[in-house]
Give the backbone structure.
Amino acid sequence: MAGRGKLIAVIGDEDTVTGFLLGGIGELNKNRKPNFLVVEKDTSITEIEETFKSFLARNDIAIILINQFIAEMIRHAIDAHMESIPAVLEIPSKEHPYDASKDSILRRAKGMFCAEDFR
Amino acid sequence: MGVSEGEESHLLLDEKLLCFMKQLELLEEKRNTLNSLIEQGWFSISKARYSMGNKQVSALQFANKMEPLVSVHVRTLENAKVEFCTERSSQKCSDESTKDPTSVEDIGPLEEGIRRRKTTKSGDKEKRETGGTGSEKAPEVNPVEKRDHNPQQDPLNWFGILVPQSLKQAQSSFKQVIELSAEIAALQILVLIKQRNYLFQRCGPFVQCSDD
C-alpha cells in the first residue's frame, strides 16, 4: 500500500483529472474528501479557491497540480503561498497551452533580473 | 599576481548565477517533456472515448472508493532543499489479485451464506431421532459478510473490464507525468533556493536589491 507517503492533488478539467486518476493518484479519505477537483463550466471561483486552500491546509498532500488557466483565476492565492510543501505545479490544459511567463515560480525566478518584480 | 577580494566575490557570484541558469534550463527541458506527455495522454483519452462512446470515459465512471496507488515521500535535505520520491504500489496490488481470484469479479450478493438443503433420507433419520421437531424449521442461513471491495484496484477497471489499448496508453503516459511532476516540483524549489542564495550573496541579508 502507498502507506505513509504523501499524496498528489489535482485541480483541473475533466480530461486532466481523469488522466491523473488513471495514473493512480486518486484518494477518497475517511471523511470521503477527495484529493481532486474536476472544474466544469459551472464551477465557481470561490469553490476552486476553497478547494485549493483546503489542499494547502492538508498535511498529507505534497504536490498540487493545477491547470494554468484555473491557476490564473486564483492567482492571488497561489502567489501568496510561499512554502515549499505542498509544491504547486502549473500544467497546461487542452484549450490553454502552457505559458511560462504566467507561471508563478518562473515569474519569481525572473524577478532576480528585475528588482521591481522581485518580491 | 593574486586575485583581489572584489574579483573573487564576482567570480563566486558568476558561478552561482551559472548554476542557477543551468537549473532553470533543466527545469524548462523537463517542463517541455511533461507538457508533451500530458498532450499524449489527452490524445489517448480522446481515442478511447471515440471507441468506447462519449460518456464512457468521464468523471461519472470514477469509483466511489479510492486508494492512492502512488505516494510521494518528501525528504528535506540541507540548505532547505526538498526531494520528492514517488512510490508506486501496483506490484503489491497485482500480487493480491493473483492470490485471491475473488477480487477480480465483484458479482453476486453482498452477503454470502451456506444454506442447508432439505434432504429426504437424512431428514427422515433426524425426524426419527428428534421426534419430528427439527424438520419444521426453515432452512438455516449463516450469513457471512463478503470481503470488503478492494478500493486499491486498477483505475482502468472503472471504465470496464475490456478497455481499449488507447486507454492503457493514456494511463502509462500519465504515470510518467506523475513521476516527472515530482522531479519538477523538487527542481522548482531548487531554483528558488539558488535564486535566494545568489541574491543573498549579491546584496547581503538586509540590503535591498534596488540599491545596486
Remarks:
- Residues 10-51+71-89+159-205 of chain B form one domain.
